[in-house]
Amino acid sequence: SAVISQKPSRDICQRGTSLTIQCQVDSQVTMMFWYRQQPGQSLTLIATANQGSEATYESGFVIDKFPISRPNLTFSTLTVSNMSPEDSSIYLCSVMDREDSPLHFGNGTRLTVT
Amino acid sequence: GQNIDQPTEMTATEGAIVQINCTYQTSGFNGLFWYQQHAGEAPTFLSYNVLDGLEEKGRFSSFLSRSKGYSYLLLKELQMKDSASYLCAVRFRWGGGADGLTFGKGTHLIIQP
Predict the structure, then answer these.
(1) What percent of chain B has pLDDT over 70?
(2) How many Cβ atoms are within 10 Å of B41's Cβ, its own excluded?
(3) What is the DSSP letter of B81?
C-alpha cells in the first residue's frame, strides 16, 4: 500500500490564525480524503480532494474554513482557517490506491488551538 | 443518509474470543471495512467485505450480510495488545460514481488478564 507522509505531526496554534497541513504520498493514488477526529470521537469526513479541481465538501464543512488543494496525484494540503478552540482535533489524510482498495491513513496532525 | 451503529465499549478476557457487531443503513452500499485504532495513533486497515460471507485473516475474521445490513468482526485468542478501538466503516457510491467512506463511532475493546 501507499506510504503517506503527513506534516506537521502536531502543532499548537493561537485563535484566529491558520494552519496548513501537508499530505505527501509515495505513489499516484486515485482518491485522497481529509478526515477530522475530535477527542473521543470517530472519524468525520471533511472533504474529498479532487486533482485539478475544487474539493467536494461534506455537510457542515465549507471551503472558506477548510480550503484544500490537490495539484497532482501525490500531494494535497488542508488549511484550517481562522482557528478557534473548537477546531482542536486530529486531522487525517487518507488515500485509496484504486477504487476497490481500502482506505489508508497518514499518521495525522494533532492540532491544539489556544 | 448513512447510519452506522456499533457498541460503544466491550470487555473481554485474554485468550478468549470476542465478536464486535456493526449494523448499517446506507444507500449505494459498496463494501464494509473494519479498522483498528490504538489511542493516539491513526486507524489501520483490518478487513474488507463486499460480498456476503466470512473473510478470515489470521486471528481476525469479518462477516457481512448485505440483506440484513449487518457485519461483525471476530477476534480470537485475544492478546493484551488487541485493546483498541475498532471502527466499522461503510463505503457507498455517490450519484456521480465516486466512493465515500462513513465511519461508525467505534467500539472501545478492553482486554483483561
Answers:
(1) 94
(2) 14
(3) G
